[in-house]
């Protein structure tokens, strides 16, 4: 898929890639090795503001799915910065979704769908992936969701 096609799909969805976020600790956002890009966990920023809180407590299902989608957008932004072009994506191999949730909240997969559906909508078949979705008691900076990725890439 070309960058123009990806940009068109984002525009059709009413979405724009954010500026890639700087790391909040000692790590790099993306490591490329052996034909794979490993994307560090990305937090949900919407209009420059971090979505915080816990599912099952003070974050609704819709807000949680939007947070996961925002993480997905940040993953794409980090990939574009690291690879120079999103057209180098061969396939999203796996997403890992971490959902800040109460002990009795069990809809983590529905929240993770925010990121998964984004990848499919933007990248088509190449966006279909394996995934894990887990509940955690807390995330960095109080974020509602964090998503990381493993991505198969084409050579330059």
Can you tell me about this structure?
The chain is an alpha+beta fold and 156 residues long. α3 (108-123) links the parallel β5 (89-100) and β6 (130-136). It has a single domain, classed as RutC-like (60s Ribosomal Protein L30, Chain: A, 2-Layer Sandwich), CATH 3.30.1330.40. It has helices at 3-12, 61-83, 108-123; strands spanning 30-33, 36-42, 45-46, 49-50, 89-100, 130-136, 145-153. The protein starts with a helix and ends with a strand. The protein has 3 helices and 7 strands. The protein is globular, with a radius of gyration of 15 Å. The strands form 2 sheets. The chain has a 5-stranded mixed β-sheet. The protein has a two-stranded antiparallel sheet with strand order 3-4. α2 (61-83) crosses α3 (108-123).
Q: Which descriptors would you attach to this protein?
A:
single chain, 156 residues, alpha+beta, 60s Ribosomal Protein L30, Chain: A, 5-stranded mixed sheet, two-stranded antiparallel ribbon, 3 helices, 7 strands, 28% strand
């Amino acid at each position: 898929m070309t960058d123009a096609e990806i940009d068109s799909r984002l525009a059709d969805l009413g979405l724009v890639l954010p500026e890639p976020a700087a790391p909040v600790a000692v790590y790099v956002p993306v490591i490329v090795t052996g034909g794979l890009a490993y994307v560090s966990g990305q937090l949900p920023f919407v209009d420059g503001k971090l979505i915080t809180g816990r599912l099952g407590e003070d974050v609704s299902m819709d807000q949680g799915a939007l947070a996961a989608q925002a993480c997905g957008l940040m993953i794409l932004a980090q990939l574009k910065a690291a690879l120079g072009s999103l057209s180098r994506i061969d396939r999203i191999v796996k997403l890992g979704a971490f959902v800040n949730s109460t002990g009795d909240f069990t809809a983590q997969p529905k929240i993770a769908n925010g990121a998964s559906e984004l990848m499919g909508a933007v990248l088509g078949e190449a966006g279909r992936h394996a995934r894990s979705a887990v509940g955690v008691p807390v995330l960095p900076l109080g974020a509602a969701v964090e998503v990381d990725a493993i991505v198969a890439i084409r050579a330059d």
